[in-house]
Amino acid sequence: MPAKITIFWFRRDLRLEDNVGLYQALSSGFPVLPLFIFDPEILDKLPEDDARVSFIYQQLQSMREQLQEKTGSSLALYHARPKDIFAKLLETYAIQHVFTNHDYEPYAKERDADISKVLAKQNIGFKTFKDQVIFEKDEVVKDDGKPYVVYTPFKNKWKERFNPATDLVDYQLDFSGFLKDAALPNITLGEMGFQEASIQVPEYIVTKDLIENYEATRNFPAKRNGTSRLGPHLRFGTVSIRQMVKKAIQEENEVFWNELIWREFFMQILWHFPHTVNHAFKPKYDRIQWRNNPDEFEKWKKGETGYALVDAGMRELNQTGFMHNRVRMLVASFLCKHLLIDWRWGEAYFAEKLLDFELASNVGNWQWAAGSGVDAAPYFRIFNPMTQIDKFDKQKAYINTWVPDLQELTYPPKMVDHKMARERCLLTYKEAVS
Known about the structure:
The protein is an alpha/beta fold and 434 residues long. Helices cover 47% and strands 7% of the residues.
């Protein structure tokens, strides 16, 4: 009989430090085989030059190299349905446990339930751990046990519950616990039908200066280093949320800390209300008669609306996979309220393009913009794309970066009149929600 092993399954935790599930696996008493599975169920929906796939692949290759250098072990990479991979692993190894970290999205929950059943038939434990958040599921709820649907009281209860001594533990890993096998399967991007992306995920910026100045700079899109670019790194777990919260506390910056809590607010909303992926949190908003003009949607996607700040945001997104958070609110509001195009169309486009796409936050923020979600802006709040320039890009530094043709004859005229669009939106929404 082969010696028993523990498997650690990397998913949204692509790092070899301060990783709860990996720490627990290495403490199991059995050699640990680490692996990652490129899942066709997810990949088949993506373009072949998807920057997020390239980023994941680069990070995994770096982790393989680190393990080979430090321990003589490696990281197994597979490309197939997880269920099929585990069936093969069961034929090859004597598996005692499978460890991994929680994933809260609807598809992930179904996938993990299936894997758990497969393993249970062989009396193999499937153990999952909290790693990508400080608080999850129903750990921060009202006194009556019901979930919060407004951010501020959630944030207040979150901080009331928070204890740095227990919630910011740094999980130091014992690398001697890895299975000594440097010949574990690898794979290339080409073998999966992908190619190296031209867009690269930028390094995150969590310096003392950024955190200290975060409140003053975060709303101005022209500020080159005004935001942290943490989104993709938190999304794929290349950084530890515990380390980021620790930095916010050390620098005594409530605003930066609160932004990290927003992420957990939307995650618990998705956990409690999974229907919000496809339906309005407030059901009456599903009665809105969207215009859904495909030609207007194309102009919005390309940044050809004639509204300079909207166009700058969309062009930045298309060229870099990033859009400043302040501008995200504006372009989302413009799509839903000026053009009366269903928020689900915009959410799907952001899901395709954003490097930091994370389902809970994407859905939550789009429903906020449409007025249909939790803690949402009232439907009669409609951003004026012109006055937003005066507030956040008065010198047009951001606009000039992304819309160099602003003064050219080729720049498109405004595709819709703001006053008319506002009145049309108010009438349409009022008919639906009254």
